[in-house]
Design brief:
The chain is mainly alpha-helical. Helix content is 62%, strand content 4%. It is built from 48 helices and 8 strands. Helix 10 packs across helix 23. The two termini are 36 Å apart.
């Protein structure tokens, strides 16, 4: 049982870092005797007052005038300004009273504020200025526009506008809702036109969840928090009220949460204050629009013709909606009706009596009479029901099996479950609805539906959905256990989902990097026990059962060391997947392609999976399809397309709430950035990958992120750091990397070890890589192996690495891949130059430079340029205009390393020279540049040669 949570008050402002920085900047300038104004505009509950309180508290004992509007005084001229000036500490000075004697005209207020700020800077804060009397508002706005920064008056004014505004305006002391365009735009906001404005947006999902967690306490249930955050729609005050309205047991998930959620009345009232002044027909139309959104929940609003038809049936005038539009409560385009904010819709429903809501749903159900409107008609009938209705529940369940979008089917099943009398049937329908919601990309909705399954123990389908949710957005160890449990419970009555559960458990084991668990799950899948697969018929649709059996048997053969038969079986699986119409089957073929090393087939499978998902869904598989394609493109050396796919996948994963996929995509982007040489971007994505991977057990993401950081170290000429990162991943031990990724990092490790003078520590890894190369179809592996042997030979007395380099280049010419080929050419040219074969070195170095530039590897191109200069060849773009051009290439490299903080010994290791050589070159650098210390050298490079001082990789994830 979870610990009982205690409701807390928030200790800080969540999701407002940008807004706080803007206000703090205004206050900082104010403390330096510079004035300025900021108008904060937002709907009720978004934190306007909290930002003003922050500013007042930050001022400490400095001069502050603060007031919050009192709506009851809105009809009294200048009552607002009187309250503001009365907030001054102590009595108003005589000179100020003399100025006010003739009335607080705007020009008088300008002089008064200047006078008050004459001795020390003054901060003026007016909260809820829209509720001030019109004369005070106009005078303050006039004064703030006339004041200059030199007047030392800073001002913060908050107000709301649109349908939430209750602005008393000139000529209408009673505060009736303004009509026409000015009413829609907000009269109070228009009065402050010309002043800097800050519009507050609702909190984003992470900020809302952080706030909810603090309010509800660490023992609160995540599903309950999700429901609260959805209901609050990013409104922090409403979220606070909703949390406070629940009991500790409800927050902990130990007691049912009422529906609709209680609380929030005061906030919601503000969103419909204008509706109260409208006539009965208009209010009915608004209620019908809010009720229609229950079955038509898209972003493009609800059908206007449906609302007009329902209104006529009730004897209401459809044209009455014009008044609601004039008041800013809705917008229409002649076809669809939209609310300006989701809380307007929520408030209209929550503030209506149950009988009126039910009547509105019945009207809509009657108006939805066409055959194609069966689902919305049944949904509206269900919303009007007041108890169990088995016949209606069965009708909804029957509609849910028809070919429709998953979201619509999930809605139908959820409504059916609500009306189902028996507990087992209700749980089964909630579990089915949760699965459909998950497939439709609504993971939060899926969790909420799953939480309504009350059976103990839970049915197999509930475990299945829970496992899939955790696989994409939770600890993969939990996903593995849930899916194995689901497979056992579903094996008799639902063998298809039982197999799906096992495949999900296998995917979880893969993400964890646990080969033992993976093989255990594979053994439970149906197979042919190693029998050869049937000959594929290119004219017939692939048999999913045969393809799955080939996948299972092939993977087991590969893990068992029977690579010959394993490749044959997986080849069948790959060919079948490239003709499949199920995205999961296609992606499984892509995984098989990577296992055998067929990178080209992996890219084809990724592209087909993405096309299938885009054409047929499900939406929930879009991030994973993009991840598979991005990783395949990365392995193929197509870094720009890989980066584009990964960025799109990251956006989709964030939208659909799939943090595990996002974590893997961050690792892909880190690897991509390590190629381009963008050290900061590499570190940023690697850090995100490591932080996401740790709590959820994503070993593959950790391995890829660490490899990316090591490759970035190499690009910056820091081989010792790269060795420190990669040795634990490649060697056997508790920190060993993912079984499917660790071999990919061996060439990087060998290069780093050779450059750091530690080749003896990686000889075993080279032999393991040779064994792996013999059994993989990866076209780059033979070239990388030859390069590794060349690097090892370079460190051995009497060995000649030239033959190995020549062999590696020949393999590269057959395999393609600009980046890896360029790295081999760079190392070969470096080796030749170190042996004083500078004329021979120029050709490989020149080719390396061109290839690095072609694939956008900027920092690697700079290394190639440096080596080419050291070999005696000028590089395009070289000039002799600055002091740095007086340095030799080796002096430039040493200067950069020293400026970044490396010791002479560390520089010697990185550049494979002696410490005495570094000392000699550094003295010449000091003399040439006219500096006397490392500090002066670092400052000189920052100012004169930022290109030598950029892209240093932060030590993330070591």
């Amino acid at each position: 049982m979870n610990p009982t949570p205690t409701v807390h008050s928030p200790l800080r402002l969540y999701g407002r870092s940008g807004e706080l920085a803007l206000i703090d900047g205004l206050l900082a300038r104010h403390r330096d005797s510079t004035g300025g104004s900021l108008v904060i505009v937002a709907p009720p509950g978004l934190g306007r007052s909290a930002l003003v309180r922050h500013a007042v508290e930050a001022q400490g004992d400095r001069s502050v005038l603060y007031t919050r509007a009192v709506p009851a005084e809105a009809g009294l001229p200048y009552s607002g300004l009187h309250a503001l000036l009365s907030s001054a500490p102590g009595p108003i000075p005589r000179w100020a009273s003399d100025m006010m004697r003739g009335g607080l005209r705007p020009t008088v207020l300008v002089g008064l504020l200047r006078a008050l700020a004459s001795r020390r800077p003054l901060l003026v804060c007016v909260d809820d200025a829209h509720a001030w009397d019109p004369d005070s508002r106009l005078a303050l706005a006039f004064a703030l526009r006339r004041l200059t920064p030199a007047d030392r008056v800073a001002a913060l004014v908050t107000l709301t506008d649109g349908p939430y505004e209750t602005t008393p305006h000139a000529g209408d002391r009673g505060g009736a809702p303004p009509g026409g365009e000015s009413g829609r735009l907000g009269e109070s906001r228009a009065q402050f036109a010309g002043l800097a404005e800050l519009r507050l947006a609702p909190l984003d999902e992470p900020a809302a969840d952080d706030l909810c967690t603090e309010l509800a306490g660490p023992g609160s249930d995540s599903v309950v928090r999700d429901a609260l955050c959805r209901e609050a729609a990013g409104n922090p005050r409403l979220l606070t009220d909703l949390v406070h309205a629940l009991t500790p047991d409800q927050l902990a998930g130990e007691a049912p949460v009422p529906h609709p959620l209680p609380g929030g009345g005061a906030v919601l009232d503000a969103y419909t204050v204008r509706a109260d002044a409208l006539n009965a027909d208009t209010r009915l139309m608004l209620l019908l629009a809010a009720a229609a959104h229950e079955h038509d929940a898209g972003d493009d609003g609800v059908d206007l013709a449906l609302l007009q038809h329902a209104a006529r049936r009730a004897g209401a005038d459809p044209e009455s909606l014009t008044a609601a539009e004039r008041a800013g409560l809705i917008t229409t385009d002649g076809r669809r009706l939209r609310f300006p904010h989701p809380l307007v819709r929520t408030a209209l429903l929550r503030r209506s009596a149950a009988a009126r809501r039910h009547a509105a749903h019945r009207l809509l159900a009657t108006a939805l009479a066409a055959p194609h409107e069966e689902l919305p008609r049944l949904v509206q009938r269900s919303l009007a029901a007041t108890g169990c209705a088995p016949a209606l529940a069965d009708a909804l369940a029957a509609v849910a099996v028809e070919p429709r979008p998953q979201g619509e089917r999930a809605l139908a099943l959820a409504r059916a479950a609500d009306l189902t009398p028996d507990a087992a049937g209700r749980d089964a329908r909630f579990a089915a609805a949760a699965e459909l919601a998950l497939l439709g990309g609504a993971s939060g909705r899926s969790r909420a539906l799953l939480a309504r399954v009350r059976a103990v123990p839970a049915p197999g389908r509930a475990h299945y959905v829970r496992g899939l949710l955790a696989l994409r957005d939770g600890p993969v160890g939990d996903a593995h256990e849930s899916l194995l449990t689901a497979a056992s419970l579903l094996s008799a009555d639902d063998p298809g989902r039982a197999v799906g559960s096992l495949l999900g458990a296998a995917e979880a084991a893969w993400a964890m990097g646990d080969a033992t668990l993976l093989t255990e799950v594979l053994h439970r899948l149906p197979g042919q026990d190693g029998a050869p697969p049937p000959q594929p018929d290119p004219m017939a649709a692939p048999d999913p059962g045969s393809a799955l059996a080939a996948y299972r048997d092939g993977m087991l053969a590969m893990f068992g060391g029977r690579t010959g038969s394993g490749k044959q079986l997986l080849r069948y699986c790959i060919e079948a997947s490239l003709r499949a119409s199920d995205a999961s089957e296609v992606m499984r073929g892509g995984v098989a392609a990577l296992v055998v090393g067929d990178v080209a087939a992996s890219c084809r499978a990724g592209a087909r999976a993405l096309a299938v998902v885009r054409a047929h869904g499900p939406e929930a598989q879009l991030p994973q399809a993009l991840e598979h394609l991005a990783y395949g493109e990365l392995r193929a050396g197509r870094h720009a397309p890989a980066r584009a796919r990964a960025q799109e996948g990251l956006r989709a994963a964030a939208r659909l709430g799939q943090r595990n996929i996002a974590t893997h995509l961050h690792a892909v982007l880190a690897l991509s950035a390590s190629v381009t040489g963008d050290g900061d971007t590499c570190a940023l994505h690697a850090e995100a990958a490591v932080q996401g991977a740790g709590p959820h057990g994503l070993s593959q993401a950790t391995t890829l992120a660490t490899w990316a950081l090591a490759r970035a170290d190499l690009a910056r000429g820091m081989p010792a750091e790269a060795v420190a990162r990669l040795l634990p991943l490649v060697r056997r031990g508790p920190r060993r990397g993912h079984f499917a990724a660790r071999m990919l990092a061996v060439p990087c490790l060998v290069e780093a070890a050779a450059l750091a003078g530690r080749t003896g520590e990686v000889l075993g890894s080279v032999e393991e890589f040779a064994h792996w190369t013999a059994h993989t179809a990866d076209p780059l592996a033979p070239a990388q192996l030859a390069r590794c042997r060349a690097l090892v030979a370079s460190a051995e007395e009497g060995s000649d690495a030239a033959d190995h380099y020549t062999e590696a280049i020949a393999h590269h010419d057959r395999a393609g891949g600009d980046f890896e080929r360029a790295r081999t050419l760079l190392l070969y040219g470096y080796w030749l130059r170190r042996r004083r074969r500078t004329r021979e070195a120029r050709g490989p170095l020149r080719d390396a430079l061109v290839a690095f530039e072609r694939c956008g590897a900027r920092i690697w191109a700079e290394r190639a340029s440096g080596e080419l200069r050291a070999a005696g060849e000028a590089v395009a773009g070289d000039s002799a205009d600055g002091p740095l051009d007086l340095l030799t290439p080796q002096q430039r490299r040493i200067a950069r390393q020293v400026a970044e903080g490396a010791t002479n010994r560390e520089v010697a290791v990185r550049l494979s020279v002696s410490t005495r050589t570094v000392d000699h070159h550094l003295r010449n650098v000091y003399s040439t540049l006219g500096v006397r210390s490392r500090t002066e050298l670092a400052r000189f490079l920052r100012q004169s040669a930022p290109e030598l001082h950029r892209d240093r990789v932060r030590p993330t994830g070591r």
